[in-house]
């Protein structure tokens, strides 16, 4: 999909405020409400906009410990990886699972839990019990220096 300046502006604004009304969005980018809505629907239908979500405060939910876990697997087969990915996809504490290269690990998980006891429980009773997991290295997040969800929009 070829994006023009209005499309890019719509995407920029929506990444900052996904709850903005169509009227306010149209006003911000200097388009008529009907034209703005037409463009927005086209961006959604193209699959460029995947959805809308609320960002929650983990600490206020009692989730104050974030960890990055590097996982090593015993075999590098599609079946082994698929099984691992399916299992971690069902663990609510796992916020992100990345298949990585350039490390001694195969995956990096970003998890959030209440405290160290909850982390130990997650690690020992769920993650290390997944068939194929042979190594685990944990790092704990002290502070989020940059924490954003907005993607750079080329040409914006």
From TrEMBL:
CDD domains: HTH_ARSR. GO terms for biological process: regulation of DNA-templated transcription; response to amino acid. Residues 3-64 form the HTH asnC-type domain. One of its GO terms (cellular component) is cytosol. Keywords: DNA-binding, Transcription, Transcription regulation. InterPro entries: ArsR-like_HTH (IPR011991), AsnC-type_HTH_dom (IPR000485), Dimeric_a/b-barrel (IPR011008), Tscrpt_reg_AsnC-like (IPR019888), Tscrpt_reg_AsnC/Lrp_C (IPR019887), WH-like_DNA-bd_sf (IPR036388), WH_DNA-bd_sf (IPR036390). GO terms for molecular function: sequence-specific DNA binding. This is Winged helix-turn-helix transcriptional regulator. The lineage of its organism: Bacteria, Pseudomonadati, Pseudomonadota, Betaproteobacteria, Rhodocyclales.
